[in-house]
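We modelled the chain as a single entity of 1079 amino acids. Its sequence is:
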Amino acid sequence: LNAKAAMYAIDLFFEKWGQKIPVFVSGTIVDNSGRTLSGQTNEAFWNSMSHCKPMAIGLNCALGAKDMVPYMENLSKVADCWVFCYPNAGLPNAMGGYDQKGPEMAMDCSVFPEKMLINAIGGCCGTTEEHIGCLADMVAKYKPRAMHGVKDVMRLSGLEPFNYEPDAKNMRKTFINLGERCNVAGSTIFKKAVVDGNYEKALSIALKQVEQGAHVIDVNMDDGLIDGESAMIRFVNLMVSEPDVSRVPFMIDSSKFHVVEAGLKCSQGKCIMNSISLKEGEEEFLKRASTVKRHGAAVVVMAFDEEGQAATEAEKIRICMRAYKLLVEKVGMNPQDIIFDPNILTIGTGMEEHNNYGVDFINATREIKRLCPGSKISGGVSNLAFSFRGNEPVRRAFHSAFLHHACEAGMDMGIVNSAQVIEDVYEKIDKELLGYVEDVLLNRCSNATERMLEFAATIDAKSKPCALLKKGAAGGASGPAKVDTKAWRNQAVGKRLEHALVKGIDEFCVADTEECRVGGAYPSPLQIIEGPLMDGMNVVGDLFGAGKMFLPQVIKSARVMKKSVGHLIPFMEEERLANGGTGEATNAGVFLIATVKGDVHDIGKNIVAVVLGCNNFKVIDIGVMCPKDKIINALIDNKADICGLSGLITPSLDEMVDMAKAMEAKGMKIPLLVGGATTSKMHTAVKVAPNYSGGVVHVLDASRAVPVAQILMDKKRRTEYLDDINDTYAEMREEFYAGLEDRKYLTIGQARKTALKAATDFTLPENKPVTPKFCGVKALVDVPIADVIKYIDWNPFFQVWQLRGRYPNRGFPKIFNDDAVGAEAKKLHEEALAMLKEITDKKLLKLNGLIGFYPANSVGDDVEIYTDESRTTRSHTFPMLRQQAEKDTDEPYMALSDFIAPKESGVKDYLGMFVATSGIGLDELTAKYKADNDDYSYIMAEALADRLAEAFAELMHEQVRKDHWGYAKDEDFNCEDLLKVKYQGIRPAPGYPTQPDHTEKGTMWDLMNVQEEIGVELTESFAMLPAASVSGMYFAGKCAQYFNVGKITTDQVKEYADRKQQKFEVAERWLSPILSYEP
């Protein structure tokens, strides 16, 4: 690894210098195991270093000449450059000295030139001028080794070499299994281990893959819950330290290039980098490819370009040929190190345009291999049959059949479940099953998918494709009868209701509920609820828990349930009064849920409430901005079994701690669940759990809330579960406090010195600030929604609904191609667009925005705002926070004030700010949906309002750059570029990583008179009302960049409080999430 790092640095130097000089690379075999100190064999070492094209490579030190012979023989055979050797003067004696004299050493070394193994020879430990003279005399009579070529194959390595020599007659036999289980998108078990910090468990998954036949381990950490770069570094370092894992090469896999680089920098072997593409244009493609080459890795090239993902055969071939030409001719990459992934897309979806995806891949593979000699073909095989997820024999049969045909066409490798693809031999697949599978795979008939689905329904979903088991009676020769999609309307009314709930069909639910009520089968309305309605919801809960239903479907099921129950409520009330009773349906438990004081965000809370309701919990939702006394009184009044708290902004974390203390003071014993975007398992363990003895559990999302709540309602399992949670939290607290002790920080004075050294010179023409068109505020009132829609980032929208595509179908619009969630995501998107059209046409929401520009300069870590251009009178001050956590690099320790020209420079600079809302009218809209018992629509409306607010902010920022401030008038980016922040300048928001103090919003509101201008107000916790609002500051300079302040120490907190004229304890409370110490 050190040698690779050195060669990387040398190559960078040569590039800057503009010329090259020869480089020798030398390794050391430390003992008779034949390995380097880090465990590599010498051939593996050569594979790791060959990319840098050294003039010569050799071995030195460690062993005496006699013991080095077999390793020199091997190195001489595999290296296509000059080879040298300079051994020690024999082995060291007991005192660490060397006794071997020159003539004796020369005699031992004579075997090297005799066998023509070397081109140069020298001496290492214990050698003197005498030794070198004897060696020179000895080699004078021999011919040097002739430099030779080596077989042109792809050469990878871990601790051991992996040289891929495909068998053209049987590519399936030499197929490379890329183990998929260390990919957080491919294994929920692996993801959980990483999220929980259980890296030993993660390592055991890697080891098991190697044991089960993986030739290469794919490692991917791309997930919103994971810091991809740090997780990649930690896990790759851990794998490197485990010889049974690191003996195979790694595939470092991420959609984020900096994460890939982090992994490559930890890997001593020759890796595969996954992936790059032409999606962002040739310039970025060439830049990244050159970096990968410099790291010495093979590279996966996805079949994407500026126009999008290649789906057809022609598109796949065109993009791959273009990439091949660039890589070979402009980057100088060895064709053997180029691996194309022409996109294995899902088939059997029921959509006609998907039917030929399998054939397109197979045919494209054959042509790409012909037109791009030396290149390899790979792909994510598990993507192919996501339509049949849950039916193991069908899914696995698809994988086996696909590999059979794709390998015949020249496919070299794939991301697979290694154990399964080895076990599922194509020739042993059940012949009847194989026939149906290949009809779909090879697109042999128009109704292949329907026939496959019908056959799949007849087999045991847990059997194996080579040992297939049927369930029930098999169909006749013509196959099972075709399913009548409307046959459910002919069932008994109770079954019709159950079906409607599972499928989310509300068209007939009120009529069917009324038929139940008057039909005589159910003596009371309550029995209808506890009978067919709950039967249906139980099925929904089971399917959602098993991952076979998705959140949008569950919310639609809840809509059916609420409409049916809403129809029954008047009759139940009438019956209750007539009987003088208080009859109420039984439930799984009473769950009270609230958003804490000062916080107005409730989309996630609403989703949790609906999903719990689908699982027969009685949910009491007491709304947003709930003070602790209100929550405690509601818990008592409703006899709640569980309390759930939600929060989005960081001040909500303190409110949750206060709530835990208040529950403890009241002597309560009901479990407390906390969740929301700002919460974390670590914060819960460290801050919340120690303050409440009744049990505290952090819940990640709606799907996790149900099983947790069910366990907590089970008296037999509850105690053991909470004991286990408490043990886990105790360990996390120990880890957290140990981390605080281990982490090093600069004083605030030291941190500022690093910034001064790297300070931007604002007097230079390229850094001179641009003057805005106006100073003061400009209100943008009732902006047309149609102007904003194209700026929507749909990825967070799908995350709200817990729809996440798997590689390579992560993100919008690729998610529509995902086998598991694609169809539901597409349907959800279409329904979202329909609601957006209605909102736009009927003007149901109002978009208001406010932009402000002000004369400003930095004074230390503060940004001063002046009343006018004379800059003599300061009106407001924005104190900024600076990084203090010690870095491994020479980067400066940043604060936002670094991006504004210092007052003493005499340069006139400006600070911008904005507020955008799309929430005016949202309360009225959601109230209408709630009155109609339409959970799905009101959650959809809230989610769309959030997206519109962010999109509006994107539009406003573009107008600022190109017009109002005009510092980038010629900017020309599409919406995708905008979402990737390719433009100049930033818009950080108070309360977020770059400026983590929410209270600075108060200064903004006072300066811009926000509430009076556009009707957006602040709560006591500085959340914005309406909730669908965003705000931030504009920094225009080229030097401005986003960063994370991270943890800070008490010296900065004290000084910050003084600068804000705030009590130290108050500052600590608002900054508590970023304190490096316990106050």
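As a brief sanity check on the tokenised model: The chain is about 45% helix and 15% strand. The CA atoms of residues 711 and 721 lie 8 Å apart.
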